[in-house]
């Protein structure tokens, strides 16, 4: 990268999976990197913690201590069908541990870490970016990767087209002796969403996800009842969902993970996309010397979103037709026949 020396080549904001993936890749390639997060780690994170085994194995630092279990099948219940086992090699992780371990790994690799640092805005001055923090301090860098999650302040400051939004409610319930043997997913009949129960070490991780933001608490309580679980209150979060190929940043500010709206609209699952996009943002900066990284970054993101399941339009069609199908695979096959699953490159 060229030009006068700023404090850091790259500032990464947010130390979730996207931010740590970016920082690891930059540091490994000799780029001076500062990784900041508003929280002190380990910090709690609302998450089911389930991801594809293939994605988990590809991670630069998997945090072995965060591993809870491996499954080869998931129980999937369609709205009007029986529950069936669907083949899916998945890994269940403890997100608090996963994120905390990855942050310490970055630190051990030489990344400068700033915890308790709330970034509020980024602006450009000559060829440097200046990020201001709530405590009044600024950091100068050549480029910024904003991986500050679904509530991204940096995204708001860029005034990009709005994302769609999904909502989740989640809780942890102590497990009994008859613990679930594998993750369970139940699609709803009257709502574009699903409920999940994932067996943790000592707790069941239970939640609902919906593309509608009304009546989610009722949905959650009904889901608990259907599965013979005691009523409890859930913690609410929202998930940004990118529309079409909306920009994933501006100039030398690249948005990664949930801040870019990259979670899968069908499930709200976003760990895999966060890991991929964090690394892709770092790769784009490395490739372009931070000159014009955005087109390069968006080309890398297209590889993620061209996966047919990874589109909002697909998720909507799935939920519109789920009640007509007895099996998950049957629903997917019908959508394929209707060409809801479009060819590569379309969105
Ligand atoms: C209830 C729930 C269940 C989920 N279950 C799953 C699942 O089972 N599988 C799956 O793949 N995905 C799941 N997801 C989605 C997944 O958690 C996210 O997609 C993933 O965490 C995105 O990673 P990220 O790095 O982009 O953002 P995050 O993990 O959200 O990290 C963002 C970081 O930025 C920091 N930050 C925020 N604002 C600022 C600021 N202004 N300055 C500095 N730091 C800041 C935060 O403290 C945080 O550490 C779930 C989400 C929810 C809400």
Overall description:
This protein has 347 residues and is α/β, with parallel strands linked by helices. The protein has a domain of 184 residues: FAD/NAD(P)-binding domain (3-Layer(bba) Sandwich). It is 29% helix and 30% strand. Strands 1, 2, 6, 7, 8, 9, 15 and 16 form an eight-stranded mixed beta sheet that branches. A hairpin with a 2-residue loop joins strand 15 and strand 16. Helix 1 runs parallel beside helix 6 and helix 6 runs antiparallel to helix 7. The longest helix is centred in the last third of the chain and has 18 residues. It is globular, with a radius of gyration of 20 Å. Flavin-adenine dinucleotide binds next to helix 1, strand 2, strand 3, strand 10 and helix 6.
First and last CA, distance: 33 Å
Largest sheet: 8 strands, mixed
Find the count of extended strands (DSSP E, 2+ residues). 16
Please report the first level of CATH classification, the CATH class of the domain at 8-49 and 59-68 and 93-161 and 243-305: Alpha Beta
Class from secondary-structure proportions: alpha/beta
| Uncertain stretches | 342-347
**SSE arrangement, N to C:** EHEEHEEHEEEEHEEEEHEEEHHHH
Mean pLDDT: 91
User: What is the overall number of helices?
Assistant: 9
Helix content: 25-40%
CATH architecture of the domain at 8-49 and 59-68 and 93-161 and 243-305: 3-Layer(bba) Sandwich
CATH homologous superfamily label of the domain at 8-49 and 59-68 and 93-161 and 243-305: FAD/NAD(P)-binding domain
User: And the CATH topology of the domain at 8-49 and 59-68 and 93-161 and 243-305?
Assistant: FAD/NAD(P)-binding domain
Global outline:
globular
What percent of residues are in strands?
A: 25-35%
Radius of gyration: 20 Å
| Quaternary structure type | single chain
Which hetero ligands occur in this complex? flavin-adenine dinucleotide
